[in-house]
């Protein structure tokens, strides 16, 4: 999922539960149109590979993604911006939980 803020989605791709997220993320990154005032793209650790990060930079974004703990050369990232995407997914999970609870 690509979000513009912690309250709005720009695009998303659904894949099977057994599929890895990174190939779908590459497809999604190809589809989105960059808005000039957007400098950053917030990504989950599943997308922290060199291919995804370099593709994001080619599109003119500065990727905000935490490195995996086993990285030999970890990088710095903006934890405040990272918090935005975490809040967005928390909202989605809460909404899903409330929807399931209310439908029973």
TrEMBL record:
GO molecular function: DNA binding; transposase activity
Name this polypeptide is given: Transposase IS4-like domain-containing protein
Pfam family, one: DDE_Tnp_1
Domain Transposase IS4-like residue range list: 7-84
Listed GO biological process terms: DNA transposition
Signal peptide range in chain numbering: none
């Amino acid at each position: 999922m690509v979000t513009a803020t912690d309250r709005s989605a720009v695009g998303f791709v659904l894949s099977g539960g057994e599929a890895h997220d990174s190939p779908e993320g590459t497809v999604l990154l190809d589809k989105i149109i960059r808005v000039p005032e957007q400098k950053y793209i917030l990504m989950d650790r599943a997308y922290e590979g060199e291919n995804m990060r370099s593709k994001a930079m080619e599109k003119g974004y500065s990727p905000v993604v935490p490195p995996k703990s086993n990285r030999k050369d970890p990088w710095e990232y903006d934890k405040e911006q990272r918090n935005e995407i975490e809040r967005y997914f928390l909202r989605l999970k809460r909404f899903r939980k409330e929807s399931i609870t209310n439908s029973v």
